[in-house]
C-alpha cells in the first residue's frame, strides 16, 4: 500500500498552530495511509508553543504518523510590523533542507511526499513546493466569507488597480460575491486600508493563494453555505474543502499548575450558578482594554444585574505583538467598590480556560472579540455571542454573525481597538453594552439563541460520517493520494 506524507507549515504563534495540529490529527485518524510532519515556527520569546507541544498526546493509532520539527527560533531584530514576514522569509533555507531530506528519507516506509499544506500567511513557501515539483495547499484558519473577501480585495487591488485606502472610514457598501448582502467598507480589516506598505504586503501574500491546488477552510457548509457555493462556482480559484469546525476542545495550550488551579476555581464557581444564567466575557489572546473602557463594561454588567464571568487582561506594552498580562489587583482599573457590590453574582478573572467555560451548562451568553476560533467554539457549544470586535478580521466576522447569519447580537460591529497603542480607542458606553447583554441573555427575543442551538447540532453532524465536512475531508485525502498514484 502506497502511503502519502504531508508537510504542514503553520505561521508563527499559538492560535494558528493549534488549528493546524487539530487538522493534522483529524486527517490521520481518517486514513491510515497518511503521515504528517508539522514544522514549528515560533515568535521571539514565545513559550506558549513549547507548553502546547509538550501536552499533545495523540491517539496511539496516529502517534507514530505525526511528528514535529522545530525550526530555529530567531531573535526579534526589529520592531517593524513586517517582522513576522521577515521571520518567515529567514526560515526558507531551513524549510527547503527539511523538505529535501523528507523526499530522500521519508518518515515511514513506502511513504512518498505528496504535498505541502501552508498556513494562509505562509504563501512564500509555495516557491519551495515548486522547486521540488510538489503540489501546495492552503489551510485557511478563518471562514469562507473571510476567504471570499480576500479574493475580492486581491482582485480590486491587482486586477482593477483600486486604491483600497479610499475605503478607510468610508460609508460605502461593497458587493462582495461571498456575501448575500452588501458589506460596509467600515468592517474591512484595517491592515488592507491603512497607509504604508502593509496592505500590499498582505494582499501580495494572499494573491498567491490562486497558485495552490486547493484550500482547506476551517468552516462547515451549513454555517456558510452561501459563501461556499460562491467559492465553488468560481473557476478562477482553487478547489475549496470546508473541513471544520476544527477545534482544540481539550485546552491543551494552557500550561502550568497555576492555571490548573485557576481553572478548577472557575469550574467550582460555575457549578454553583443556575443553568444558562452566566454571561462570559473574554477577548482572545490579544484582547485587552484601557481603563476607561474597562469601567464602562463594569458599569454595564452591574446595571444589567446579570451573573457574569469576566476575563480581564492588562494591555501589553507598545509595539507589535505585545501580549496582554494579568493584573496584580483588579481594583486598580475597576470602579470603586465594584467587586464588593457584585460579589456572589459576578467573578473577575485573568486568563480563562475558554473551552471549559463555554461548555459549562451555567454559561448562557458570550461577549466576544469574534475571533474565528472563538466563533466556532460558541457555535459548537450553542452559546450565542454579543459582538465586541477588536482587530484583524474580527469586524468582518461580527458583521457576518449579526447581519449575514443572524446568530449574534451586536454590541458593536465596526469597533476597532488600536493594537499599536498610538492613539486612544473609541469608547463604547455602558448603556450600549448593557442593552446588548440584556438582549443576549433574554430567553425570548430576536431568535438568536434558537438559531445558535440549531447550528450547534449542524456543526456536529457535519463531522459525522456522511456529513458535509466528513465528505470534504475525504475529498481532500483522495486528492492527496492521487498525487502519488499519478
Automatic annotation (TrEMBL):
Keyword check for Transferase: yes
Its Enzyme Commission number(s) read: 2.4.1.-
Task: Look at the named UniProt entry and state the broad enzyme category this protein falls under.
Answer: transferase
Q: Which InterPro entries does this UniProt record tie to the protein?
A: UDP-glycosyltransf_plant (IPR050481), UDP_glucos_trans (IPR002213), UDP_glycos_trans_CS (IPR035595)
Q: Which family does it belong to?
A: Belongs to the UDP-glycosyltransferase family.
Q: What span is annotated as the signal peptide, if there is one?
A: none
Organism annotation: Handroanthus impetiginosus
Tell me which stretches of the chain form a coiled coil: none
Record carries keyword Chaperone: no
Q: Which UniProt keywords are listed? A: Glycosyltransferase, Transferase
One Gene Ontology molecular-function label? UDP-glucosyltransferase activity
Q: A Pfam family matched by this chain, by name?
A: UDPGT
What is the official name of this protein in its record?
Glycosyltransferase
Amino acid at each position: 500500500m502506497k502511503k502519502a506524507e504531508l508537510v504542514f507549515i503553520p505561521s508563527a504563534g499559538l492560535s494558528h498552530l493549534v488549528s493546524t495540529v487539530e487538522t493534522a490529527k483529524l486527517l490521520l485518524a481518517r486514513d491510515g495511509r497518511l503521515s504528517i510532519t508539522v514544522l514549528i515556527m515560533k515568535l521571539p520569546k514565545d513559550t506558549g508553543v513549547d507548553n502546547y507541544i509538550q501536552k499533545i498526546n495523540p491517539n496511539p493509532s496516529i502517534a507514530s504518523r505525526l511528528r514535529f520539527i522545530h525550526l530555529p527560533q530567531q531573535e526579534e531584530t526589529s520592531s517593524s510590523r513586517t517582522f513576522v514576514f521577515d521571520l518567515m522569509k529567514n526560515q526558507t533555507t531551513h524549510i527547503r533542507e527539511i523538505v529535501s531530506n523528507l523526499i530522500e528519507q521519508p518518515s515511514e516506509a513506502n511513504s512518498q511526499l505528496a504535498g505541502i499544506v501552508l498556513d494562509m500567511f505562509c504563501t512564500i513557501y509555495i516557491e519551495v513546493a515548486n522547486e521540488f515539483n510538489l503540489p501546495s495547499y492552503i489551510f485557511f484558519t478563518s471562514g469562507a466569507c473571510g476567504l471570499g473577501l480576500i479574493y475580492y480585495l486581491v482582485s480590486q487591488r491587482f486586477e482593477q488597480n483600486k486604491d483600497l485606502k479610499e475605503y478607510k472610514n468610508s460609508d460605502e457598501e461593497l458587493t462582495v460575491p461571498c456575501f448575500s448582502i452588501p458589506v460596509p467598507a467600515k468592517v474591512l480589516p484595517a491592515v488592507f486600508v491603512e497607509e504604508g506598505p502593509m496592505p500590499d504586503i498582505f494582499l501580495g501574500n494572499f494573491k498567491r493563494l490562486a497558485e495552490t491546488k486547493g484550500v482547506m477552510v476551517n468552516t462547515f457548509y451549513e454555517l456558510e453555505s452561501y459563501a461556499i457555493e460562491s467559492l465553488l462556482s468560481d473557476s478562477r480559484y482553487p478547489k475549496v474543502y470546508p473541513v471544520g469546525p476544527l477545534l482544540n476542545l481539550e485546552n491543551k495550550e494552557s500550561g502550568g499548575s497555576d492555571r490548573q488551579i485557576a481553572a478548577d476555581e472557575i469550574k467550582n464557581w460555575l457549578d454553583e450558578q443556575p443553568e444558562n444564567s452566566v454571561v462570559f466575557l473574554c477577548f482572545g489572546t490579544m484582547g485587552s482594554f484601557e481603563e476607561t473602557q474597562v469601567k464602562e463594561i463594569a458599569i454595564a454588567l452591574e446595571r444589567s444585574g446579570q451573573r457574569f464571568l469576566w476575563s480581564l487582561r492588562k494591555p501589553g506594552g507598545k509595539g507589535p505583538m505585545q501580549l496582554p498580562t494579568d493584573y496584580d489587583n483588579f481594583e486598580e482599573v475597576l470602579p470603586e467598590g465594584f467587586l464588593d457590590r457584585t460579589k456572589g453574582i459576578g467573578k473577575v478573572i485573568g486568563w480563562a480556560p475558554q473551552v471549559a467555560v463555554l461548555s459549562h451548562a451555567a454559561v448562557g451568553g458570550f461577549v466576544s472579540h469574534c475571533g474565528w476560533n472563538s466563533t466556532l467554539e460558541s457555535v459548537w457549544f450553542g452559546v450565542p455571542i454579543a459582538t465586541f470586535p477588536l482587530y484583524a478580521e474580527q469586524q468582518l466576522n461580527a458583521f457576518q454573525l449579526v447581519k449575514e447569519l443572524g446568530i449574534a447580537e451586536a454590541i458593536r460591529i465596526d469597533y476597532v481597538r488600536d493594537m499599536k497603542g498610538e492613539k486612544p480607542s473609541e469608547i463604547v458606553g455602558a448603556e450600549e453594552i448593557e442593552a446588548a447583554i440584556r438582549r443576549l441573555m433574554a430567553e425570548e427575543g430576536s431568535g438568536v439563541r434558537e438559531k445558535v442551538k440549531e447550528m450547534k447540532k449542524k456543526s456536529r453532524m457535519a463531522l459525522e460520517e456522511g456529513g458535509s465536512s466528513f465528505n470534504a475531508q475525504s475529498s481532500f485525502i483522495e486528492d492527496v493520494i492521487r498525487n502519488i498514484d499519478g
